[in-house]
Design brief:
Blueprint: H1 6-21, H2 27-42, H3 46-77, H4 84-127, H5 147-162, H6 172-180, H7 193-200, H8 208-241, E1 243-245, E2 248-250, H9 255-285, H10 303-309, H11 312-327, H12 330-343, H13 345-368, H14 372-390, H15 392-402, H16 408-425, H17 427-431, H18 434-446, H19 465-488, H20 491-496, H21 499-516
Antiparallel strand pairs: 1-2
Helix pairs in contact: 1-2, 2-6, 3-4, 3-5, 3-6, 4-5, 8-9, 8-19, 8-21, 9-16, 9-18, 11-13, 12-13, 13-14
Length: about 525
């Protein structure tokens, strides 16, 4: 039941309507039934995987809570009997017990993720070193929908309980709803239990403004997805995969690669943010608050800022649960001290940051897909960010001499530079082959032919003049909304102050979607790009 399917739209409407019709104490129960049904529609077998993840998290957190309570009871009962060293030794023993339990949980849940998503990747790499006669067979593996999202979400919850930052959810059904809440199963955001639980289980009364705001966001998401992203998809697939004419496959190089790079940047943005808008909008119609996942990323002036604005919940998850734990672990602190003593303070202070960041970006690449192109993509981001940090002293000297910082022309240069650099790195995602990506990107600098922009060549990739005009108008609309948001805040607040204008805007968007949505032959108005992750 894909988000863009008619079945899902009907399902969504029934759930929202039912949410306000049932008694308030049953609202979260209705969401649980709806979420399990949604997942069952994808494949009933998926429920086994999500069930194991939920039950393991439930058992692990209750066990962690019991260990903590036993420790408090023991220390209270033996307050006068234990020496300071004995208390310290006891606490260390309990801490080790909790740590081993956490490792057991992480091994199980992350192990399921690793086996389902990466088994064939490992087999494929092993086969490179084996003879034809010794080749290992690939495994027909089930990869549950949204496994990366619900696994990370659940792992974050258990780690927060382990750290003492989160209370244990003792109701198994409520925990199941947190793991399986249907709007975010397809492509996130990766919610934190402490944030989502504040509104997920609470009863909500019907409020016209809440439902209207959610509806507008849903419609805006569908507009970006089926009118812009899926229309661009036709051209991107042609440019990336080539085109067969008279039995001969044409390969697009040079300026065509630049066009594909820009098209894919806008396609991915409208596809991913459109899906997130639909997700957050659905939750919002029921008064449930999901974390924002984007903050105008194309206005970023450098890649570090870009990643603070793009897929925010993923970035903060990796920072909190990978970067910080690695950077303060004992082996890393010892390495940092050794580096300071033997290689100098300048090197020593960088070791922790560089290695921890390397682990984050390596993991980020692997999370995006079981292929070398995603790993190289992740490490390319790491290299650019690290190089940028090393060049900061030069940037400061430059700004000190030329006084361009903060001025509009220079900021526009920074934004365009970041957009092009990120788009170029993202080509590893497009071609899915590392050597091919380098050749294609290299061709932009060796055989860039401007004539394709005026000789009609770009009308042969599946997009007509009408398509280009429509895309230009729609992208300008997205830009206008972004600029308004950047300067004034929520567009919905501005429109809702004039009720007629607000609902007219929704009607116009719905009309545009119905008339210009990229449906039919040559288009795929179904799959979201990030659904594969």
């Amino acid at each position: 039941m894909l988000f863009t399917s008619f079945d899902f739209i009907v399902f969504m409407a029934v759930v929202v309507l039912g949410y306000y019709l049932v008694p308030k104490k049953w609202q979260w129960g209705l969401l649980l039934v709806a979420s399990l049904y949604f997942y069952w529609c994808a494949d009933p077998r998926y429920l086994i995987f999500v069930g194991v993840t939920t039950l393991s998290a439930y058992g692990a957190t209750l066990w962690l809570q019991k260990i903590e309570q036993d420790q408090k009871s023991y220390l209270a009962a033996h307050k006068a009997d234990l020496s300071k060293d004995e208390k310290k030794a006891y606490k260390a023993k309990v801490k080790a017990k909790k740590w081993h339990l956490l490792l057991l949980f992480l091994g199980l849940d992350l192990g399921i993720l690793a086996v389902t998503k990466y088994t064939n990747f490992v087999i494929g790499n092993i086969n490179v070193f084996l003879s034809d006669a010794s080749q290992l067979s690939m495994v027909d593996m089930i990869v549950p929908m949204g496994i990366s999202y619900y696994t990370f979400q659940t792992v974050g919850y258990v780690i927060d309980v382990y750290r003492g930052k989160q209370e244990v959810q003792k109701d198994l059904l409520k925990l199941t709803l947190f793991v399986t809440f249907f709007p975010q199963m397809v492509q996130g955001p990766i919610s934190r239990y402490g944030d989502l639980s504040k509104s997920l289980y609470e009863p909500h009364s019907f409020q016209r403004k809440t439902v209207s705001y959610g509806l507008m966001r849903i419609v805006w998401g569908y507009f970006k997805k089926v009118v812009i992203a899926d229309r661009l998809l036709s051209g991107v697939l042609t440019l990336i995969g080539g085109q067969t004419v008279g039995g001969v496959t044409m390969s697009y190089d040079g300026a065509y690669v630049f066009v594909a790079m820009v098209f894919y940047a806008f396609q991915l943005y409208c596809d991913f943010t459109g899906g997130i808008d639909i997700t957050i909008g659905i939750a919002e119609t029921m008064g449930i608050r999901l974390a924002e996942n984007f903050d105008l990323p194309f206005f970023s002036r450098n890649i570090k800022e870009y990643w603070n604005r793009w897929h925010i919940t993923m970035g903060t998850w990796f920072t909190d649960y990978i970067f910080y734990p690695i950077s303060v672990c004992k082996p890393m602190l010892k390495l940092s001290k050794w580096s300071r003593d033997h290689l100098g303070k300048a090197v020593g202070k960088r070791v922790t940051v560089y290695l921890s960041s390397f682990a984050v970006w390596l993991t980020t690449g692997i999370w995006h897909g079981a292929a070398w192109n995603f790993i190289v993509w992740g490490l390319a981001n790491w290299v650019v960010i690290m190089v940028s940090q090393e060049l900061e002293p030069l940037y400061e000297k430059f700004h000190g001499r030329f006084k361009v910082k903060g001025k509009l022309p220079y900021e526009l240069f920074q934004v365009i530079r970041t957009f092009l650099l990120m788009s170029m790195i993202r080509m590893f995602d497009c071609y899915r082959d590392v050597p091919l990506t380098f050749r294609k990107v290299g061709s932009m600098f060796t055989s860039f032919d401007l004539r394709i922009f005026g000789d009609g060549s770009l009308l042969q990739i599946g997009l007509s003049v009408a398509d280009y005009i429509l895309l230009a108008v729609c992208l300008l609309a997205v830009l206008a909304v972004s600029l308004y948001k950047r300067k004034h805040g929520s567009v919905r607040d501005g429109l809702y102050a004039h009720s007629t204008l607000f609902y007219s805007a929704i009607a116009v968007l719905v009309t545009v979607i119905l008339i210009f949505g990229a449906y039919g032959i040559g288009f795929d108005a179904g799959q979201f790009i990030y659904n594969q992750f």
